[in-house]
Specification:
Chain lengths: ~350, ~525
Amino acid sequence: MSRNTWFELLRTGVAIAAALTIGFVVTSLVSESPVEAFGYFLKGPFTSIRRFGSFLEAAVPLTFTGLAVSLVFSAGQFNMGAEGQFFIGAVAATAAGVFLDLPPVIHTIVCLAAGMIAGAIGGFIPGVLKARWNASELVASLMLNYVFLKLGMYLITYHLRDPSAGALVSLPLKESSWLPQFTRTTKLHAGIFVMFLVVFLCYYFLYRTSRGYEARMTGQNLSFARYSGIPVLKVILLIQVLGGAVAGLGGAVEMLGIYRRFQWQASPGYGFDGVIIAILARNNPLLVPLAAVFLAYLRVGADVMAMYADVSAEMVSIIQAVIILLVTAEAFLAGYRHRLTLKEVKQRASAS
Amino acid sequence: MGAQTQARATDPILLMKGITKVYPNGLVANSNVTFEVRKGEIHALVGENGAGKTTLMKVLFGLEKPDEGSIFIRGEEVKISSPNDAIRYGVGMVHQHFMLAPSLTVAENIVLGAEPRRGIWFDRRRAEQMCRELGEKYGLQVDPAARISDVPVGIRQRVEILKALMRGSDILVLDEPTAVLTPQETEELFEALKSLKEMGHTIIFISHKLREVKELSDRVTVLRSGRVIGTRNTDQVTVEEISRMMVGRDVVLRPMRPKAPAGPGEVKLLVNKLNLVRDGTHVLKDVSLQVRAGEILGVAGVEGNGQVELVEVITGLSPCDSGEVWVCGQDATGKSPGEIRDMGLSHIPQDRMIFGVASNASISENLISNRYNKAPVSNGFSLNLKAISRLSQELIGKFDIKTSSAQQAVGTLSGGNIQKVVIAREFSTGPQVIIANQPTRGIDIGATESVHKYLVEATESGTAVLLICADLNEVMSLSNRLIVMYEGQVVAYFDEVEGLTEEEIGLYMLGLKRQEPDQVTASMMGRPVE
């Protein structure tokens, strides 16, 4: 392991420890019994099979959006659109699950494909705006979230709504489209296999294919990529489309595996969590599931704490914010690193 | 040297003691450097690029914080943590890249930060008066009312020096002052520096042009890989001795141009009447040239006279307004960089950190950027990691890239080794045409020698080389034929480089002399171009 990788791991570790400490301090300020409350927070996800399951389930959509954002970040592009792509992917999968009549497995695959295509369109728009007219993909993707949210809600309300249900939800998806759940106690479902497949494919694409190489070099140094003969505009478009497809697939998996009928009234926020995860995982697809599990752990822990102690679940936002600030702060621990470098240089000098 | 200088020689005006500076990437720029300058001398600080000269001076000027060491000025220990501190202690710096406001006048630039006022208003007349007096006092005449953007580089440098003198600097640091000057301008600068010395100023002169060091300086300190190799009285050492101290071994100072090909070779690169207007300026005006198999065509000229734009258009990085580019008989006009590379063109860019490499990516990744989708590196879809590692090992060995592993990030290598990565990549695809833009800028003598060798070797197998180079000595000794660019035009063409003098080329570079445009084209192309 290179010194750099080791240092980045250390930095992330210290950032997490610092954030948890600050989280504890805040808990002490608001809680009657902070130690107990914080205990629920840390141990909560492991206290029952159901909670453990829900913590793993929550990691699945987070992994998808984390991958979507990581792909696009790797090419040096922004992606704030995973939110809308995930949402519209879920709507598209719902439509395919409600309207189509297909044999099992095939139906599932068609629904997943529908989600991917919808998400890919969501990525194509900011990609083509950027490649063709140099419009900021940050702004375009961010604004498109609202477009997809409203478009999705329109489709659900006017074309997919279940009139017999009391709330605003869609008709149930046909059973032939479902991703099977493993047990009755948890909602852990076969989508997790799809997830691992996509993790591997993203890694393979970025690090083992010529196209992925193009994307990474474009992200590392755009001028260098152009000079080397890499068609950077095509790369930018492709990576946005792929990112969108992954996010859309995530939305579809969530529908087919967990909900089985569309019941969101607002965007569930996985897209923005994807940004956090991509930052924690340093855009490396293989680290994305770990970062997603960690974030899911914090979320479920916070829910357990809110249920049993006098601290609200929002406390976890503070911890998240501190981690992100410290991990992204270039100068954090830079002094320590410089001393290490100095020491190493001296050792080398005296050895020679 | 007069008796006066002798008498003063005992008191060092500046002493930098035990300076160590390590950059965050682990690069040791200065290692326990002790540097002493006496009052009233011109002290040359020499060393290859990356030897630590600039870093040492940045420490002196408060731009870098040393990890160890102390600085004494006039016998007192001082702490310099910003350029303001340095100026207060009388240290003035003339940077490699001038720090002037181009839209302001000469006088405004010189008094900037210490403007004379009348009431609350800027006193322009007084400022211009001050500049004129200052210029006369030091023999550095300038027109105070001229706008910086309108005056040539030599005058800009003069303005930088006056600016430092205006702030009361009596220790002047000049970082490679002659790099951007023509021979004539260099001569004038040296006269001015000598008269400053007569007036008791102390001058630190950073350079790697040893002829100049020999001509100008009283003493010389040599740095190599961040350490002081020694300080000598200039009149007691030869140029060869200094260069041996710099490199640690004997070096060939003059490269040899390739043997001119027997008959006229096939035209590999043809540029016909290129025109480009950028920001309202005609940066390329009817530029035509051709390079034949097996020869080096040199492009001389002061930087900023269209060379960068010419290269950008040829390599496909910029579109042109009119004209055409042909590479190996194929129309390359308006094609993408990738398409032009596929025609057999390689490109060594001027700025290797911006265009030449992705500094956080590994050496391997940087070596394959021009063949990542071709066999054997790729089967068209996925990369062949074994082939990449084999190729990297081969190129690292063949081009003598000093590294512990092909996985090391390119940005952690020295400048010379980074350039070797670029050269290795660009030369190893069997190019038909090589565009080499300042290929030896900022790299050490050893690496420079190898770059020259690779260029000459490439021509032996029939490659055509277009060499753009600001170092007149270098471009003249490497090229078979030579053109001079001035204000976006080819103002001179020489079929034979042997026998030309730098002074003569200098006149063309300054725009004082030019050949008839039609004649230039006709003699280079062998026939009028229709």
